[in-house]
Amino acid sequence: MTTSRLRLAALAGLISLLPLFATTASAQVRGIGASFPSKVYERWARTYEQQTAGAAVSYKATGSGDGVKQISARAVDFGGSDTPLPADELTKRKLVQVPMLIGGIVPVVKLPGIGANKLQLSGDVLADVMAARIAKWNDPRIAAQNPGVALPALRIQRIVRADRSGTTEGFTRYLSEVSPAFKAEIGAGQAPKWPGQVVTAEGNDGMVKALAETDGGIAYVSYDRVVKDELAGVRLVNGSGVAVAASEAGFRAAILDSDVSRAGNDLASLMNRPASGAWPITQTSFVLFDAEPADAERAAQGMRFLYWCLMHGDDLTRGTGFAPLPVNLQARLTARFAGVRAKDGRAPQYMNF
C-alpha cells in the first residue's frame, strides 16, 4: 500500500470514530445556581463546546440557594454557589465542592453627575446606608468622605436581591465584619430581612436593570457587570485604610494576602484584607457535583467540563472581571475529582477531553 493510501486509510479510520466521540459528549451538561459568576460560566461553556466535539453545556443563573438545592436533588449536573457548604453538609448530601474563580462584589449607584469611582465610602458608612440609618445622599457622614463632590439631596433607594443569593451573603458578611451594629440588627445571610422599604430584583442582571430605573439607587453586583454595563462603582476604604476602586488587580491582592494563597485553603476569607491594594469585598465562587453518581458515564460529562475549566483557569479567567485560583490551590483540587466513585464502584472518566 502506498503512503498516500495509508494516509487515506488512517483518515477514514479517524472519521469513523467521530460519531463515537460525538455520542460520548452529546448529553447536555446542565448547571444552575449562582448569578455572580454566571457570565463567565456561559463564556467557558461556549469555548468548551467549540473545542469538544458534540459537547453541549448550559448554565442558568438562579441564585446560590437554588444551585445547592438543585444539585442536592440531582436535578442538574452541577450547582453554582458563592456560599460554600461545610464539610459535614457535603458528607450528608454526598457532594464534592470545588472553587472555580475569585471575584468582587461592588456597590454601584445611580446619582446625577457622579460617575464611576467618584463616590467614596468607608465600610461602616456603607453599612449604615444599607441598614437605612442614613436616609439621603447628602448626609453629613457621606459628605465628609467626599469633599468637593456635589451630592444630591435625593432619598437613598436600596436595591437588594429577591432570591437566595450568595452575592447577598458575601455582601452582608462584609458589612457584618465592618459594622457591629449591622451584624446585630441584620447579620450575614443569603436572604436577610432588610429594614424599611427596599427595591428587590432577581439575580445580578436584575440588579443592573433595577438600578437603571431607580434615581438615587444603590445596589451591589459582581465586578464583571460593573465593567460590562459601565456602572458607577463606589470606591471603598479597605482593611489597610486605603480607598480603592474594584479591579482584577485588587482581587489578586486580596488573594495573595490570605490563606487561600499562603496555605491553599479554599475556604479562607478574602474579605477586608489589610494589603494596600486589596478590594475589601472579594470572594470565592464554588461548584458542587455528585460524589456518588448513579451513572459513571453520565457523571463524566459534567466532571469533564469542570475539570477542563480548572485546568485552563488562568487563560479562561483573564479579562473576565474575575481572578484565577492560585496555582498551589489548583493542584490540590485535582484529588477531589479523583475521589468520585459511581454507586457501582466505577470512576468517571473525566480527563479524556
Name some characteristics of this structure.
12 strands, 2 domains, 3-stranded mixed beta sheet, 353 residues, alpha/beta, D-Maltodextrin-Binding Protein, domain 2, 9-stranded mixed beta sheet
Please explain how this structure is put together.
- The protein is of the alpha/beta class.
- The protein folds into two domains: 25-102 and 285-338, 3-Layer(aba) Sandwich (D-Maltodextrin-Binding Protein, domain 2); 104-283, Periplasmic binding protein-like II (D-Maltodextrin-Binding Protein, domain 2, 3-Layer(aba) Sandwich), CATH 3.40.190.
- Helix content is 42%, strand content 18%.
- The protein contains 15 helices and twelve strands.
- The protein has helices at 3-25, 38-51, 64-72, 87-93, 123-130, 140-144, 166-178, 180-185, 203-212, 223-228, 248-256, 259-262, 296-311, 313-317, 327-338, and strands spanning 29-33, 57-61, 78-81, 95-110, 120-121, 157-161, 199-201, 217-222, 232-233, 235-237, 243-244, 282-290.
- The strands form two sheets. Strands 1, 2, 3, 4, 6, 7, 8, 9 and 12 form a nine-stranded mixed beta sheet that branches.
- Helix 5 crosses helix 7.
- The longest helix is centred in the first third of the chain and has 23 residues, at 3-25.
- The two termini are 33 Å apart.
- Mean pLDDT is 91; it is low at 1-25.
